[in-house]
């Protein structure tokens, strides 16, 4: 009986369908729009530029249905703290961001983790993880 219960749970989980092809396309488009929007506000810290520093800052932020940034926090970073300061300035300044598709919302909001790479040349291209096409992880 115990195993039949597990089989039933697995069957129910298997029957749950994921996002449709249209929803996936809509989500990818939003990820692209979000990163493009945020990158318009991103600037390289001058002290870091002069010292030739590079790094990455991973930020977790929550966006509501209208694109308003509700909260954000630094998840991790590499390199100089100058990059953390830059991100702390530009992420709030970028609000509102493009509104997320309704299919991505959970209780009217979405949590996103995104890496922001600071690099002066092409040597840092592998610095950001390849979690999705635009390096955004939506939760």
UniProtKB/TrEMBL annotation:
Please report a single Pfam family linked to this protein.
Answer: TonB_C
> What SUPFAM superfamilies does this protein's entry cite?
TolA/TonB C-terminal domain
Name the InterPro entries for this protein.
Answer: TonB/TolA_C, TonB_C
Indicate where this protein is primarily found: membrane
Which keywords does this chain's UniProt record carry? Membrane, Signal, Transmembrane, Transmembrane helix
Q: Name one GO biological process term.
A: transmembrane transport
This protein's GO CC annotations: membrane
Q: Where is the signal peptide?
A: 1-22
Q: What membrane topology does the UniProt entry give?
A: Single-pass membrane protein
Q: Which residues form the TonB C-terminal domain?
A: 29-127
- Quote the subcellular location field of this record: Membrane
Q: Which PROSITE patterns match?
A: PROKAR_LIPOPROTEIN, TONB_CTD
User: What name does UniProt use for this protein?
Assistant: TonB family protein
């Amino acid at each position: 009986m115990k195993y039949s219960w597990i089989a039933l749970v697995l069957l129910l989980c298997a029957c749950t369908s994921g996002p449709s092809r249209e929803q996936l396309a809509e989500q990818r488009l939003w990820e692209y729009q979000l990163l493009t929007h945020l990158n318009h506000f991103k600037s390289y810290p001058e002290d870091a530029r002069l010292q030739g520093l590079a790094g990455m800052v991973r930020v977790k932020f929550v966006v509501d249905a209208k694109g308003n940034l509700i909260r954000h926090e630094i998840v991790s970073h590499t390199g100089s703290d100058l990059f953390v300061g830059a991100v702390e300035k530009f992420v709030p300044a970028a609000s509102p961001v493009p509104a997320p598709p309704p299919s991505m919302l959970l209780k009217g909001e979405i949590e996103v983790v995104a890496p922001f790479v600071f690099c002066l040349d092409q040597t840092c291209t592998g610095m950001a993880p390849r979690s999705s096409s635009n390096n955004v992880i939506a939760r």
